[in-house]
Design a protein that fits this description.
five-stranded parallel beta sheet, 23 helices, about 30% helix, ATP binding, Hemopexin-like_dom_sf, ADP binding, leucine-rich repeat
Length: about 850
């Protein structure tokens, strides 16, 4: 039976198709305008705003979708014509409906493009170093300076690296060396690019082209690389400086001819991490911190000789020592204190002393800021000395319930159910605070219960909501008023759920969100940006700055970010939170007519029932990594082998050190082991694992399968079955990522459901040993069932009174029958494990990894 609504799509079939064509033409015109501005900005060497890039990408994808839609319409019409049949009304109804839907999106997209004014901004200066005018010819650096200059003149050296702590003066040194070799005629031209963490090839190419006064006409990386390559191969001598490198670079992809016998182009790289060029054939030099004497001399130069005054010298010396020999910090503090009174000096010294916690040396501000800002996790920024700092938490996430005037409020791993009583102070806590794992049993043993919920928003479909923790998300039925909640979709990465977020700031984590009053639409926030999406038929509508879409938030605390939010049950209203403050807004969907209702206020006393609940101290984190943070940066603790699995290639194994791995010929029974590949980032060697928990933070446990190139990998409570495609990067995920108990349901209620320490496959087909603490499980992984769970020493009697009786950190099965390697810290053992018996024995005793695995010398222990 066709309703009037359905008939309308049939009656307006041709009009809807015509409207689509008209809107596509309008979009094309708007796209040409924006693209013209972008081309002009590129010629000026400016950086294109992310929002503009996202809009252009959306416009291109939309145009491609319309082209495909046109093709489908043509096919359907031709079928009716050639078959001499009446039009297919079902097909026309669907196409008409789809055309109208596309018109709405394209019209909105065109309007958004019309709002784009400025498309670019000046490129940032190098983030950490001194300007060349601040360079001091320190005696301790003479040798390094001369060494770099000599290497640049050495015909056998093509690539040079300079590494050292952030703020130590790497950029300044290579800039001064560049000036020297230009003056003495060693090089004709010098070009420099700041690489930074994103290592964006287009941006690097643009910076180099600007230095060379070269106009790049190509649009793709390959076209631009060819132009650069030709320029740098024109017979002149070029020095290319690539500053602030965070990962291995493919110079050929950029267009730098430093290989293939080219002697006229040399490259200098700077990095905090020497490992980034370990596979690049680089001659490197370490730029050391200044000595105390050099630090004091530089500090005096910036402040003045009055620091030698008796009443000031002691404070000045103490402040200078806190800078730890980093010129950028010495200059920053010295300049700030120049001409200040004694109180200012004492205040600065007190700040530095107060930044120490239990004897930990404080990180110096300027040089550590870049690393701190790169951390995605809110919790990771509040860790120090191996323990999570007990920071005050107000509201971290929230979502509107299907029950009128009720909302769920999350404070990390706790939550409460609230009657929020709009426009009054009659709010009432209905349930909680409780642990998330208590109130949402389906989330027990997931990252959402253990680390907490960072962000959430309700759905327009009953008791459904979307929840986020780090880069993971899930769609749940929260079963209001009961504990019959269930996970409908996930856990999975954000870009698995919402693929359009790939390459945006939203792929690594989302701060807050709330659903719109427009069906299936929601607003998601990250930093100063927001995304408007359709979450049900997932597609991106727009990404913009908060103040572009919510003009009322300009000049408020919310313009730089929103920590939590939930939609009210009143039309077009939402509550937004940041720290101890909140605002109630009318968000006026698809317009900029939003306004704040009553101003920005403090949560207390306006939400009386939350008094004594906020701010919370939630500190329980199970993640191994979350417990090893310091001053906003993950502590680079020594790691030996965290996981391993046997390859299908004889005598080869994969060893994992958190987010890195190597492939090893382990040469059983000898010390002739050999590293065949790596160490590399897991994301580099296993592309299918990129943007999953297995790449970052890494693999905790793994074991090989008896079926070709397959293996099982684990990270926290997540696991996956993969084809690892040895010797190639054609790997793929066969099953997962999913929770351990989704893969192996028999582990529910055991110590194995939250994580697994190590594992290795048995010689019995489809069987494997999995270890957690002092227990192990023998399982069949192919027809999944549990065979036994026992204490390690009950099944492996030879491990009694060894370091392995309390736990095994990593393991892999040997290609020799019934043999396996076990690892713990810097020690290992080779055992004969005698399946289904207790006749196991250790072969040669427990030994140190070094020197018994010579090829791992210099690799272990890792700092990742």
């Amino acid at each position: 039976m066709w309703s009037g609504h359905h008939v309308g799509f049939l009656l307006h079939y041709k009009q809807n198709l015509k409207n689509l064509e008209d809107e596509v033409n309008n979009l094309e015109e708007q796209r040409s305008n924006v693209e013209g501005k972008v081309n002009e900005a590129n010629r000026r060497g400016e950086a294109i705003d992310d929002i503009v890039s996202f809009w252009l990408k959306d416009a291109d994808e939309t145009r491609q979708g319309v082209d495909e839609f046109r093709d489908e319409v043509t096919v359907k019409e031709n079928m009716s014509f050639f078959n001499f049949s009446c039009p297919n009304f079902v097909s026309r109804y669907r196409l008409s409906k789809e055309a109208k839907k596309k018109v709405v999106h394209i019209k909105y997209l065109t309007e958004e493009g019309g709002k784009i004014g400025t498309v670019s901004h000046p490129r940032e200066a190098p983030p950490e170093e001194l300007s060349s005018r601040d360079y001091e010819a320190f005696h301790s650096r003479d040798k390094v300076f001369k060494g770099i200059a000599e290497a640049l003149k050495d015909p056998k050296v093509n690539k040079i690296g300079v590494y050292g702590t952030g703020g130590v003066g790497k950029t300044t040194m290579v800039t001064k060396v560049g000036e020297l070799v230009m003056r003495d005629g060693t090089f004709d031209e010098v070009a420099m690019a700041v690489v930074s963490q994103d290592a964006n090839v287009i941006k690097i190419q643009g910076q180099l082209a600007d230095c060379l006064n070269l106009k790049l006409r190509g649009e793709t990386e390959v076209e631009r690389a060819t132009q650069l390559w030709n320029r740098l191969n024109n017979g002149k001598k070029y020095l290319i400086i690539l500053d602030d490198v965070w990962q291995e670079l493919n110079l050929k992809e950029i267009g730098i001819p430093s290989t293939d016998g080219n002697k006229s182009c040399k490259v200098v790289l700077t990095s905090r991490n020497r490992d980034v060029w370990k596979n690049m054939d680089v001659k490197d030099f370490k730029n050391e911190n200044l000595s105390e004497e050099e630090s004091w001399a530089l500090f005096k130069k910036k402040v003045g000789n009055n620091v030698d005054a008796p009443e000031l010298r002691e404070k000045a010396w103490a402040i200078c020592k806190e800078c730890q020999g980093l010129p950028v910090d010495i200059i920053a503090l010295g300049s700030a204190l120049m001409g200040k009174d004694m109180d200012a000096w004492q205040d600065e010294l007190d700040k530095l002393k107060n930044s120490k916690i239990e004897g930990i040396i404080p990180k110096v501000f300027a040089s550590s800021k870049g690393s701190y800002d790169q951390l995605d996790s809110k919790d990771a920024k509040s860790c120090i000395n191996g323990n999570l700092v007990k920071k005050s938490s107000y509201i971290n996430a929230a979502f509107r319930s299907s029950q009128t005037n009720e909302a769920y409020i999350f404070m990390k791993n706790e939550y409460l159910q609230l009657d929020y009583a709009p426009s009054s102070t009659n709010d009432k806590v209905l349930n909680g605070p409780l642990r998330i794992s208590e109130g949402f049993p389906s989330l027990k043993n997931t990252v959402f219960a253990k680390l907490g919920i960072d962000c959430a928003f309700g759905s327009h479909h009953g008791d459904e909501a979307f929840i986020f923790s780090g880069n993971l998300c899930a769609r749940i039925n929260y079963a209001s008023k009961t504990r019959n909640d269930k996970i409908i979709q996930g856990p999975m990465t954000i870009i698995q759920m919402f693929h359009f977020f790939k390459g945006t700031v939203f792929e690594s984590g989302i701060d807050s969100a709330f659903e719109s009053t427009v069906l299936d639409e929601a607003y998601l926030f990250k930093g100063s940006q927001y995304a408007l999406i359709n979450y049900n038929d997932p597609y991106l509508i727009a990404i913009r700055h908060i103040t572009d879409g919510f003009v009322s938030l300009k000049d408020t605390i919310f313009e730089s970010g929103i920590e939590a939010a939930f939609a009210s049950h009143r039309a077009n209203e939402a509550y937004i939170f940041k720290g101890d403050s909140y605002a109630r807004i009318n968000f006026a969907p698809h317009t900029t007519n939003d306004y704040i209702m009553g101003g920005v206020k403090k949560i207390a006393p306006n939400w009386p029932t939350l008094h004594g609940i906020l701010s919370r101290k939630n500190t329980e984190l199970d993640s191994k990594d979350a417990k090893s943070c310091i001053n906003g940066n993950l502590v680079k603790k020594s790691n030996y082998i965290n996981a391993a699995f046997r390859s299908c290639h004889t005598n080869q194994a994969y060893l994992f050190m958190k987010n890195e791995y190597l492939r090893l010929d382990y040469a059983p029974g000898s010390t002739n082991d050999k590293v065949l590949n790596g160490p590399l980032r897991i994301s580099e060697g296993f592309p299918s694992l990129k943007n999953t928990a297995f790449a970052e933070p890494g693999i905790d446990c793994a074991f090989g399968s008896h079926h070709g190139d397959e293996a099982f990998i684990f990270s926290g409570n997540l696991c996956a079955r993969i084809n690892y495609a040895p010797g190639t990067t054609n790997d793929k995920i066969i099953q997962g990522p999913m929770t351990i108990i989704q893969m192996f349901p028999f582990f529910k209620g055991t110590v194995f459901e939250s994580s697994i320490d190590s594992a290795f496959e048995s010689t019995v087909l489809d069987e494997a040993y999995l270890f957690k603490g002092n227990q192990y499980a023998l399982i069949n992984y192919n027809d999944p069932h549990l065979i036994a769970i026992r204490h390690i020493t009950e099944g492996f009697v030879s491990l009694k009174d060894t370091i392995f009786e309390s736990g095994i950190e990593a393991a892999f099965a040997s290609h020799r029958t019934n043999e396996a390697y076990l690892f713990k810290g810097d020690s290992y053992a080779r055992i004969n494990f005698a399946p289904h018996s207790t006749n196991d024995y250790i072969m040669g005793g427990v030994k140190k990894i070094l020197p018994n695995w010579p090829s791992l010398h210099g690799i272990l222990s890792r700092k990742n």
